[in-house]
Amino acid sequence: MVLATMKRANDQESPRMWRSQTKYSEAPRSQQSIANDPNTFYFKPLVFQELKSPQVYPTTTTQAPEPRSGHRIVCDDANLYSFGGYLEVNTGFTLPTHILQERHMQRLFEELWCYNFAEGQWKYLPTAGKAPKELASHSAILYGNFLIVFGGTGVPFGGSSSNKMNICDLRSLTWRTIDTTGEAPTPQYGQAVVLDSTTRSFYVIGGTTGYDYSMDIHKLDLTKRHWEKIFVSRGDSSEPQPRYRHEVAFDGDNIYILGGGTAREAYELKTVPVFNLKDREWYMLKTKGSLSGRPNSTPRFPCPRKCQGSVQKGEEVFICGGYDSKNIFMDLWKLHLPSMQWHYLPVKMPIPLYFHSTSITSGGCMYIFGGVTHIKNNTRTNRVFKIWLTVPKLKEMCWEALLHYRKDIRQRSRTYLLNTGIPSEFVNRVHPAPPGGQPELGVAEKWDSDIILMDDSEN
Predict the structure, then answer these.
(1) Can you tell me whether residue 16 is helix, strand or coil?
(2) Are 260 and 213 in contact (CB under 8 A)?
(3) pLDDT single digits (tens) 179-236
(4) What kind of architecture, by CATH, is found in domain 49-388?
């Protein structure tokens, strides 16, 4: 095992004085002692780590988001962004909705927050323009420098819902609502969305109005800004059950539905509903259970659940947490799409969670933020966790080691960091490149120039 360590530089040393040393463990005992040393970096795949940050909320200039659920997070390789969310003050007994509202015990967060991985801190981002007001159980996607937010509900849930396409330019921190034509989805929340950058299409699947559930599918042509109904439920037995707070996976041709449910039900994961975009038909695919490796062992499947977290990395989809209206889960599962094979991953989340939000970096690091931790007490959290779901490239491990040993890296200038020999792709994660330079947010993809989603004439 090789552990990369960095000699700590004092304030007087030059950039070229950053030196690396390599230590080789000589025996298992020495390996264990190094691994237990919090001051020594070692790469840890499939291990949950909590990211600490200040926890003070005196004013709107708070240093971290308050506990919440129903929010959404997205991330690139440099930052995690959180938008919206809901918090109900726990009184110890049940109160009618109108009393909760009158006493300001129900709160929606019209807030955009950013957690920079290099800095290890939250930052509140004040925005301009007309931000969405439906801030619970909306959908969010990060594409290039744009945060796309669709749907959502206010309180009471279902009393006011949205079917608007809202986009925030993360460079100017300006919100815009995109005008569309065609037949848009019914205003709703808890829907799932897919962005197909190849065909420039945005799909909305299922959701609830607060009274009715559906599995209808609508497509928005991002070039023409025109909505089209792709599928409307006929009530056939071949169709999946209407639902909300499900998650989806996408392989370019098919949309896979994972879990979800209604206010009282949670749907199983042994059979996965799949919608083929070419045929515009539903298919039910049986999955294969995870084997423990023991002879004659019974295959294991994830329990039915809704409000779980989910991320996709290539052909693999990961789900974590969620609940079935009675139990909150702490497990982590992987589904290989081509084979429909489930794999139970022998690691538990640090706390049980549902209505949390998850996102993944291009290198395969999943982040978890917020969620409900207790059904009866209805308590929420603002803790942040990370876990490497894959083994990334060596350069990503080196970057993590550098951040571990150089706590002051955020305070160093862009020129200083470049002069030390740090590749620009990593310097951009700390200090965005100036206009005309590298991509500002370190993301891999941008809107094509002919998709004018941010027309100056709109507001």
Answers:
(1) helix
(2) no
(3) 999 999 999 999 999 999 999 999 999 999 999 999 999 999 999 999 999 999 888 8
(4) 6 Propeller (2.120)
- Please give the pLDDT value at position 193: 98
Residue 282 is encoded by which pair of tokens?
A: 């539903």
pTM to 2 decimals?
A: 0.86
C-alpha 243/C-alpha 263 separation (Å) is 9
CB atoms within 10 A of CB 124: 15
Mean per-residue pLDDT for 259-284?
Answer: 97
Backbone torsions φ then ψ of 206, nearest 5 degrees: 70, -160
Ranges of each domain in the chain:
1-42, 49-388
Give per-residue burial for 411-450: e unless 16+ CB within 10 Å, then b.
ebebeebeebebeeebbbbbbbbeeeeebbbbbeeebeee
Question: What token pair was written down for 181?
Answer: 């034509």
Closest Cα to residue 198, out of 177, 179, 216, 223?
A: 223
State how beta strands 309-313 and 384-388 pair.
unpaired
